[in-house]
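Chain A, query sequence.
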Amino acid sequence: VEDTDKGVYQAIIDEYGEDSPQAMVEVYGEFPGADEYQFIPLGLVEEAGKRPPMRDPEAPVVLGVDPARYGADATIIVARRGRDLLEVRRFRGDDTMTVVGHVIEAIEDFRPVLTVIDEGGLGAGVLDRLLEQRYKVRGVNFGWKAKDQKAYQNKRAEMWGAMKQWLRTASIKDDRNLKKDLCGPRTRPNSSGSIALETKEQMKARGL
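Chain A, predicted structure.
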């Protein structure tokens, strides 16, 4: 895995340059600077990283999966028990069936009550295969309408809003990449007055 990561990091340096914003974030782990548009402040994430876990054995375990295939993006599998983040697993350069295998392994390790998968793009195939094998999984599409459409532009913004609230009492891992991911998105102007987050494409355009 380390060799794979080094190859990905070198590819980023070769494509964008050693001093580029992309390299600063992806390779050297420099966090985005705080500004008035940053949705989740670094301080909130750092406090959650210092908070001791509750270790409630009665709390249900839920898995979250964001599948990726090739390139700099990674497949992310996160296990959460109540207020505690148990583990973050990252995989790069895998085909769809290999990603399915990673998810099945995590399901067997953590025995979650539910596994939620981003069904956009590659995730649709991962979701279909797991449903075919009768695993308890559910798809979510970030483009769906929010339940509270007055407050949030879409499901993605609403989920980030819920996560921001969760972080106020959560216990998470002291993980550099996790911090970077949580602090990355900015809000963007919205004529309706609801909370809207920049797209992944807009984030990548500024080096995230």
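The longest helix spans residues 2-16. The helical segments are 2-16, 21-26, 42-50, 96-110, 123-132, 155-167, 176-183, 200-205.
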